[in-house]
Amino acid sequence: MAEYQRALSPGDVDAIVATFEPDGYAREPAGGQYIHRGLDDDTEPPLGPRL
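Below the sequence we write its predicted structure tokens.
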């Protein structure tokens, strides 16, 4: 987790992605409806439409 936080702070996307396992994913702790499923996900995010 510390490695992820160090990469997140400056916004180093490559370093952030490198902290995940090949089949890893990120989600909000509030439940499955907040899982990001990529660009093909046609569900609307919980806070309004995607830009």
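The two ends are 29 Å apart (CA to CA).
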